[in-house]
Design a protein that fits this description.
The complex is a heterotrimer of chains A (about 325), B (about 290) and C (about 240). With about 290 residues, chain B is an all-alpha fold. Chain B has helices at about 1-35, 45-60, 65-70, 75-90, 95-120, 145-165, 170-180, 180-185, 190-215, 225-235, 245-265, 270-285; strands at about 135-140, 140-145. Helices cover about 75% and strands about 5% of the residues of chain B. Chain B has a two-stranded antiparallel ribbon. Chain C is about 40% helix and about 25% strand. Chain C has a 6-stranded mixed beta sheet with strand order 6-7-8-3-9-10, with helices on both faces. In chain C, a hairpin with a 2-residue loop joins strand 9 (about 215-220) and strand 10 (about 220-225). Chain C is globular. The chains are: A mainly alpha (about 325), B mainly alpha (about 290), C alpha/beta (about 240).
């Protein structure tokens, strides 16, 4: 399928889903679906750098939280429309990704991974010490009552926003996959030294992937203050987000755009059920175990399992 | 002026004592990452685990934490063996260490933290011991015993390991395997076995390090994450696998953190380690450029 | 005639270990240079320094009279300096054909004035595959290739970058007699097309038949450089290979 056609089909799917959602009357659906869609964006974003390029980002919570807190700052300044917030979130997180990438991407992948982890912790420290955004006490954001462009609650609007973001993320990932950039990223993942020798400008491409990945995560975090209405560092820099962003692509499959989507839908849904029925800590434990389990047993995720089975049958 | 000098001296002293402790915290990773090239992100989790083990035995039976740390060494050693086995069969053998291995250890870090939360909750836990509270005084400088004891234990442990690595047969084999697996094979020593021993030792250090930690400060499950930046900053700055380098880097970090905490506030400490790490990466000591 | 590649007093150390010491080497355009030396003498380190994978501490590398200092490997490849790896490093997730697409996309197309269409790239890849004898495996993954096919892929990928100079690092190690001849004739054909070739090898008959000039590296130093037969008669060289 040509890339532009994919964008078109995705837009159509988004429109369909939104249309169907107008039939739903229970607000809880929108709250839950927002979370699932958010994970689709995060998992897809992570996979651009992780699955396509082979560089692991453990600090996804940091990029996400930057998006959320840049929204807080803008909201306090002059409360701009959602589009501005999202773009700002993307810009800030993308810039941080660029800066950190520039410092650490020349080194082995391990050091980049460690640096991302340390970065998330430092960002959390900085935010916790920043009173303007509430510091450790947190900040209250008033959620508007009604959706701006159509007849419905604001939560439905947030759902639509995240749905569109998810569509954009998936399209960006798919576009990369089938592009020259995608080829280059794959060579970096397969063998970085050989990629350099073949003429691939590895640093430049890694930076592009880091910026794209970080920006998408920042965009996913931008609407958070309105969703959650009370934002404090521990909810923005939340641990479950960090683990899930990695677990979902690893479970679903890292080779292409479908894996993170599958993994996100699967794991997020399971967790929503689990949080309600059992405790949320136990649910987190479950995700951690799943992550380790999949990494050890099925390194190519669910998709990889099927592909392996198919290959075996073909003989 | 006198007050500031006072503060300064105390901060530096506290920093040095802290630095000694940081060495104990990092020595495990100096072995696993510096010598075996296994990026064990989960090491802080084992330290916290060690701290909680010391807590339970202190709370229930009044055991001294250091004693617990020593008694638990075999258990941690066994745990290390098991984890290395899984790591080896899943990743090292397949040659895909990079992404999966990191995710594996991150998962373990996460699981350990959440399991501890489930069992102990998020409250801070602390131990009681006769040396927690009193201080030694040398003029204007205070040496809190709760820092001195871990300092001494840490240095003993690191020193002991250094002796072990340079004098004993197994220790020298570990140093050899960190440099040349092939040569080791030619000497008919199984490198896997040696690596397993080395990794197990690195996890065992977490037992004592954890005991030291809970003597110095109260512990709750999530503080492990603060230590990741510190540990790797120390190992990289110290030159991977070099004990003397690691000692110096630990001391330096301890002092800088202590000064920052005294003059700017303790909530900035995690940022110090990160700044340290970034500086290190900017100057790139040998061992971290692509192989 | 100005040398195509000039290595001047190049030195490289790893901590306390001196891997290369003051290496001087010049390669003329169109030449077939052989580089030999015992294991551990620093041949691969030299290749890595020339290609930019490693940074040399002292000395300089000049290609077409341009200083290569600080240029990352991908830029050197784009300038026409290509190398193959001793242990083949194919891109595992791609097909054989796609492996060759990469240098065309990123090296050939990156050169000023070049813009190959996708169709043109496909055509060139097919041609190259025919040349090396891998056409029948063009849709397979590297894991489905035999040893010699991997070696050919490794060479083909370096060739796909349309280089002016190709450094072939031990491309024939472990191959059978006929397989060695196979690779050798490939390299000779390349040279006939005008590409300068530096052959790093242990297999003496290949080196002797291929090289117009021979250089010998022992323990990080160049101990001989000249006409192959003469070099092999050099007592130092004999000593290095047969021991004291």
């Amino acid at each position: 399928m040509r890339t532009w056609m994919f964008w078109l089909v995705t837009a159509a799917v988004v429109a369909c889903i939104f249309g169907l959602s107008r039939l739903v009357t229970n607000d809880y659906f929108f709250f839950a679906a927002y979370v699932v869609l958010q994970y689709v964006v995060m998992a897809t974003a992570w996979n651009i750098l992780g699955g396509y390029t082979g560089y692991v980002n453990f600090g996804t919570a940091g990029f996400y939280a930057l998006g959320a807190y840049s929204s807080v700052v803008l909201h306090k300044l002059y409360a701009p429309p959602m589009v501005v917030l999202i773009l700002a979130g993307g810009l800030v997180s993308g810039a941080i990704g660029l800066g950190m990438g520039y410092l650490t991407l020349r080194l082995r992948g391990v050091f980049f991974a460690i640096a991302t982890l340390a970065l998330a912790i430092v960002l959390e420290t900085l935010i916790t010490n920043w009173d303007y955004v509430g510091g450790s006490r947190g900040v209250y954001i008033i959620r508007p009552a009604a959706a701006p462009f159509f007849h419905g609650g604001y939560i439905q609007y947030l759902f639509l926003v995240m749905l569109i973001l998810a569509g954009v993320a998936v399209c960006v990932a798919r576009s990369i996959e089938h592009s020259k950039l995608g080829y280059g990223l794959a060579t970096i993942r397969d063998d970085e030294l050989a990629a350099e020798a073949a003429g691939v400008p590895t640093l430049k491409l890694k930076l592009i992937a880091t910026v794209l990945s970080g920006a998408l995560m920042g965009m996913a975090g931008a609407p958070l203050p309105y969703y959650i209405t009370y934002l404090d560092p521990s909810s923005a820099f939340n641990l479950s987000l960090a683990v899930n962003s990695i677990a979902m692509p690893l479970v679903g499959g890292t080779a292409n755009w479908i894996g993170p989507v599958l993994g996100a839908v699967f794991l997020a849904t399971v967790q929503q059920i689990a949080t309600v029925t059992i405790s949320s800590a136990l649910n987190l434990l479950f995700v951690g175990v799943i992550l380790v389990g999949f990494v050890v047993i099925a390194p190519n995720g669910i998709i990889g399992w099927f592909a392996r089975g198919k290959r075996r049958r073909q003989g | 002026m006198g007050v500031t000098l006072d503060l300064f001296l105390n901060a530096v002293t506290a920093g040095l004592l802290l630095g000694g402790f940081y060495a104990a915290v990092s020595v495990g990773v100096a072995i696993s990452f510096g010598m075996l090239d296994i990026a064990n992100l989960a090491h802080p989790a084992f330290i916290i685990l060690g701290a909680f083990v010391a807590y339970i035995l202190n709370d229930r039976f009044g055991f001294d934490p250091i004693l617990t740390g020593i008694l638990a060494l075999p258990a941690f050693y066994a745990l290390g063996t098991v984890i290395y086995r899984i790591y080896y069969y899943s990743f090292e053998r397949r040659g895909e260490e990079a992404l999966r291995g990191l995710a594996f250890f991150f998962g373990i870090l996460f699981i350990t933290e959440v399991a501890l939360i489930l069992v102990f909750g998020v409250d801070y836990r602390f131990v009681s011991a006769p040396y927690i509270g009193p201080s030694l005084h040398f003029g204007d400088v205070d040496l809190p015993m709760r820092m001195v004891v871990p300092f001494v234990v840490s240095l003993t442990m690191v020193g002991g390991l250094q002796l072990f690595l340079s004098r004993s047969f197994v220790g020298r084999a570990i140093l050899a395997v960190s440099q040349d697996s092939l040569a080791l094979k030619l000497m008919a020593i199984n490198p896997i076995r040696i690596k397993s021993i080395a990794f197990a030792i690195s996890i065992a250090t977490a037992s004592l390090a954890g005991a030291c930690l809970i003597i110095i400060q109260p512990v709750e499950p999530s503080i492990g994450r603060e230590y990741i930046g510190r540990i790797f900053a120390i190992c990289v700055m110290g030159g991977m696998g070099s004990f003397p380098g690691m000692m110096m880097a630990s001391m330096l970090l301890g002092v800088i953190e202590s000064l920052t905490a005294t003059f700017y506030g303790p909530s900035w400490s995690p940022a110090v380690a990160f700044g340290f790490l970034l500086l290190t990466l900017a100057f790139r000591p040998s061992g971290i450029m692509g192989r | 005639m100005e040398a195509l590649l000039r290595v001047e007093k190049l030195g490289k150390r790893f901590g306390g270990f001196i891997a290369l010491e003051s290496i001087d080497l010049a390669v003329a355009p169109g030449e077939r240079l052989g580089l030999i030396g015992p294991n551990g003498s620093g041949k691969s380190t030299l290749v890595n320094c020339i290609s930019g994978t490693l940074r040399n501490e002292t000395g300089a590398v000049h290609f077409e009279s341009r200083k290569m200092d600080g240029l990352p490997p991908h830029q050197r490849t784009r300038l026409g300096l290509a190398r193959s790896f001793q242990l083949p490093k194919p891109f595992h997730s791609m097909t054989v054909a796609e492996n060759l697409h990469v240098p065309m996309l990123y090296t050939v197309n990156a050169r000023r004035g070049m813009h190959l269409s996708n169709a043109e790239i496909d055509r060139r890849v097919d041609e190259l595959l025919q040349q090396v004898g891998l056409a029948v495996k063009s849709d397979r993954r590297p894991r489905d290739l035999t040893q010699i096919e991997m070696r050919k892929l490794e060479l083909a990928r370096a060739m796909a970058a349309a280089p002016k100079l190709l450094i072939a690092d031990e491309a024939m190690a472990g191959l059978s007699h006929t397989e060695v001849d196979d690779i050798l004739s490939l390299l000779v054909k390349l040279n006939e097309q005008g590409i300068t070739v530096v052959l790093i090898e242990h297999i003496m008959r290949a080196v002797m038949s291929f090289s117009q000039r021979l250089a010998v590296l022992v323990a990080g130093k160049k101990i001989a450089d000249g006409e192959p037969q003469e070099v092999m008669r050099n007592p130092e060289v004999v000593r290095a290979y047969l021991g004291e």
